Amino acid sequence: MSRWSRAWTELPTTQAGVERAFSYFVAGVRLGTIAQMVPAAHLGMATSPRPAAYTACWAAAAVAAALVSAMTLVRRHPPGTAASAADFALACLLLVLGPLVLVDGERFGTWVAYQPGYALSIIITAGGVRSVVVWAGGLLGVIACYAVYLSGDVAAQMTWTAVGNVLTYIVYALVTRMFFRFARRIAHAADTSRAQAAELARREEERRAQVMMHNGVALMRLLTEPVPESSRSRLLDLAEVELRRMRSYLRGRAPEAGSPAAGAAVALAAELGRACDRFPDLHVDALLDLGAGLALPAAQADAVVHALDSLLLNVRLHARATGVVVHLDHDDHGGWALTVRDDGVGFDPAAAELGVGLREVVVGELRRHLLDVEIESAPGAGTTVTISSPHSRTAAPAERDGARSGG
User: Fold this and answer.
1) What Å distances lie between residue 93 and 60, 67, 99, CA to CA?
2) Are 344 and 313 in contact (CB under 8 A)?
3) CB burial of residue 238 (10 Å; 0-12, 13-18, 19+)
4) What tens digit of pLDDT does each residue of 212-237 get?
5) In this structure, are residues 58 and 44 in contact, taking their beta carbons and an 8 Å threshold?
6) CATH of 266-404, one of 3.10.50.40, 3.30.565.10, 3.40.30.10, 1.10.540.10
7) CA–CA separation, 301 vs 267, rounded Å?
8) Which end of the chain has less Cβ packing within 10 Å, N or C?
């Protein structure tokens, strides 16, 4: 693929990329106009009543077109307000001088009379100028000067051709103006969408970091406090689990070897039992027998166990509880429910903002795995968190009734 082909096909769909594409378009139109002017130049000089003036006007048009082309390619955007105003002024001047350097019979239908075609190229490429005043004023100026160009008997002989040319100026001006504006709107929308996507990705990464680091940070805090040696040993085991989790996150991949494959089924009760064993000082009453046959996909089970770790860490850090009940049950229809209840100080869910642990590690992560989460608490009445499959028929009635009554 040639360099120019790559330049077109590899342009980014951004505002900068669109402006760069416009610069190619402008340069192509202006250089194409020069290419059409060149073959007839010698004939125009030979037939002009003022060859020197004709040559000077032709050279001015060619040099201006070449300069504008080079400028747009270097700057990677269409001509600005000042350059467009100068372009329109030159087009008007060439049209006004046209009757002086052309034979009357050559003002239509030939590139010897390049002035109308040159003016059209400026109208087309000036559609990208941001100033409406320059664009509209330049168009009206070209039309007025074209009327001067048609002075004498020429207009009477070619009336409809002249009218058609004027309409061509107007139509091309409107179409190119709409094209430039529409392309810029699309590019702006694309840039805005990319910025929003980047911001959403940043927030999601921030959320993932909070989820992955929350329990580890809480563990570090606990390990700095005096705890029984047996509890410290279990905390170190949990810290190792969290370390592997954070290492996998930092490496951008799934949990390391030794963890179940993402699609494998995991016995949830066994995993929950191991999690409860890591908190011997909380006097956790693990009632998991009714869920002994329950198996979940590895990713979902990992989220549930991670949430339980976070809940038990919260109990240890904040609840000042004397006991915790962890109850798992499931029914014949595939529904299941895990209830975690403590008898600690509780809180008012309506008045207190949930911390990172409850908001992200528990509620946020579990709902992302299509699980339901219910938090019930009241000051002085402890806290009950129920995690369940969607539309679960499993109620764990004793636990829920006790939580609602503040027991």
Assistant:
1) 11, 18, 11
2) no
3) buried
4) 666 666 666 666 666 666 666 666 76
5) yes
6) 3.30.565.10
7) 8
8) N
